[in-house]
Amino acid sequence: MNVFVLNCGSSSLKYQLINMKNEKVIAQGLVEKIGEEISFLKHTSNCDEIVIEENIKDHNQAIELVLEVLQSREHGVIENMDEINVVGHRVVHAGEKFSGSVLITKAVIDALRENIKLAPLHNPANIIGIEVSKKLMPKTPDVGVFDTAFHQSMPAESFLYALPYEWYQENGVRRYGFHGTSHKYVSERGAEILNKEYYDLKIITCHLGNGASVAAIDHGKVIDTSMGLTPLEGLVMGTRPGDLDPGIIPYIMKERNMTIEEVDQAFNKASGVLGISGLSNDFRELTEAAEKGNKRAELAIDIFCRRVKKYIGAYIALMDGVDLLIFTAGIGENAVDVRAKILSNLENLGIIINQDKNKSRGKEIKISSDSSAVDVYIIPTNEELVIAREAKKIIENNIKNLIIDILNENN
Ligand code: ADP
């Protein structure tokens, strides 16, 4: 079975075609700057790497071009569309509606539309991806895999905010959490590496990328995560502030005469380590600047690390210990000094780092010392593989329903 994994952003899309017999990536790529004058398609397969530059006006045209390249005589990896057996879509926000992946029907699309208000930056592009895929591959089933689903196991004492209860009941205000596919992949992989039962372990996963979140997974179930109703809460991020005093919002609106849209924009695009440093949201640039004596860059990194440490401590308290601590995503996998700073002085909590091993980047490796009670690992994330596995599982489980759905939709 070949799964086409599609991750549509507002002006970009990422894709992978994965052969599920051996879970090998047959081809992968990225379309950037959709809707701008010059857009790019970067496509890589086992034998080929190409870049196409042209005006790609919308997601429809982008997906059409990707499917063309996948089947082309020169760069193709498949003979025809029949070799794509299922499309797995990354969808950011499923609200409380779905606690697992689903076969996408018209009712599912309608439910996702209802969640646009919860993820206005992400869900619209995800829905466009699904609709275009249905149009261009009408015979191929689509499966939705949701960033929020893995966190649906959280108990109410964790997902409820201390706000008027009606805000939850009537407006859906609660913690949902994000990066679920990544937290799921690395935690399951971690148990596999330790050769232990997933359901026996207490695991903390730190997904530290441009967006960043931590999850506490207690005996196989997420019991808390740092992102909330939106991806703004929790850790300090590239351009988002994470936790802050809600009183700042009315205060700064009055002080700086800002609209709610301007505040929202500042929280999403101008805060985090970029806001503190005034320099960059990229940890490579920040580290370089800090080494050259830039105090604000150094401060931004310190504030970021302190917040991650705080969450690790809180989650150890919530689970009464931790067996396995995992670092993943761009910063978690690569930023050696950031990991060292987060993991410093945690000996009393049973965490001792091996400084030599911590110098590793981007590969699966244990970075705790043998005397550490807690195992600490770098595990590169693989969200596409989780999406492909989920899509395969759903298709296999739903094969009968699928035939009925297709017949119904065609009638
Ligand atoms: P996202 O998917 O949320 O955009 P990524 O997981 O790709 O984020 O992480 C991107 C971030 O990872 C970059 O902004 C950069 O700060 C960091 N990063 C990537 N490579 C390195 C590196 N070698 N050293 C330090 N930081 C890195």
TrEMBL record:
<feature type="binding site">
    <location>
        <position position="7"/>
    </location>
    <ligand>
        <name>Mg(2+)</name>
    </ligand>
</feature>
<feature type="site" description="Transition state stabilizer">
    <location>
        <position position="179"/>
    </location>
</feature>
<keyword id="KW-0963">Cytoplasm</keyword>
<dbReference type="GO" id="GO:0005524">
    <property type="term" value="F:ATP binding"/>
</dbReference>
<comment type="similarity">
    <text>Belongs to the acetokinase family.</text>
</comment>
<comment type="subunit">
    <text>Homodimer.</text>
</comment>
<comment type="pathway">
    <text>Metabolic intermediate biosynthesis; acetyl-CoA biosynthesis; acetyl-CoA from acetate: step 1/2.</text>
</comment>
<dbReference type="GO" id="GO:0006085">
    <property type="term" value="P:acetyl-CoA biosynthetic process"/>
</dbReference>
<dbReference type="InterPro" id="IPR043129">
    <property type="entry name" value="ATPase_NBD"/>
</dbReference>
<feature type="binding site">
    <location>
        <begin position="330"/>
        <end position="334"/>
    </location>
    <ligand>
        <name>ATP</name>
    </ligand>
</feature>
<dbReference type="InterPro" id="IPR000890">
    <property type="entry name" value="Aliphatic_acid_kin_short-chain"/>
</dbReference>
<feature type="binding site">
    <location>
        <begin position="207"/>
        <end position="211"/>
    </location>
    <ligand>
        <name>ATP</name>
    </ligand>
</feature>
<keyword id="KW-0418">Kinase</keyword>
<feature type="binding site">
    <location>
        <begin position="282"/>
        <end position="284"/>
    </location>
    <ligand>
        <name>ATP</name>
    </ligand>
</feature>
<comment type="function">
    <text>Catalyzes the formation of acetyl phosphate from acetate and ATP. Can also catalyze the reverse reaction.</text>
</comment>
<keyword id="KW-0547">Nucleotide-binding</keyword>
<keyword id="KW-0808">Transferase</keyword>
<dbReference type="InterPro" id="IPR023865">
    <property type="entry name" value="Aliphatic_acid_kinase_CS"/>
</dbReference>
<feature type="site" description="Transition state stabilizer">
    <location>
        <position position="240"/>
    </location>
</feature>
<protein>
    <recommendedName>
        <fullName>Acetate kinase</fullName>
        <ecNumber>2.7.2.1</ecNumber>
    </recommendedName>
</protein>
<keyword id="KW-0460">Magnesium</keyword>
<feature type="binding site">
    <location>
        <position position="383"/>
    </location>
    <ligand>
        <name>Mg(2+)</name>
    </ligand>
</feature>
<dbReference type="GO" id="GO:0008776">
    <property type="term" value="F:acetate kinase activity"/>
</dbReference>
<dbReference type="GO" id="GO:0000287">
    <property type="term" value="F:magnesium ion binding"/>
</dbReference>
<keyword id="KW-0067">ATP-binding</keyword>
<feature type="binding site">
    <location>
        <position position="14"/>
    </location>
    <ligand>
        <name>ATP</name>
    </ligand>
</feature>
<feature type="active site" description="Proton donor/acceptor">
    <location>
        <position position="147"/>
    </location>
</feature>
<dbReference type="InterPro" id="IPR004372">
    <property type="entry name" value="Ac/propionate_kinase"/>
</dbReference>
<feature type="binding site">
    <location>
        <position position="90"/>
    </location>
    <ligand>
        <name>substrate</name>
    </ligand>
</feature>
<dbReference type="GO" id="GO:0005737">
    <property type="term" value="C:cytoplasm"/>
</dbReference>
<dbReference type="GO" id="GO:0006083">
    <property type="term" value="P:acetate metabolic process"/>
</dbReference>
<keyword id="KW-0479">Metal-binding</keyword>
<dbReference type="Pfam" id="PF00871">
    <property type="entry name" value="Acetate_kinase"/>
</dbReference>
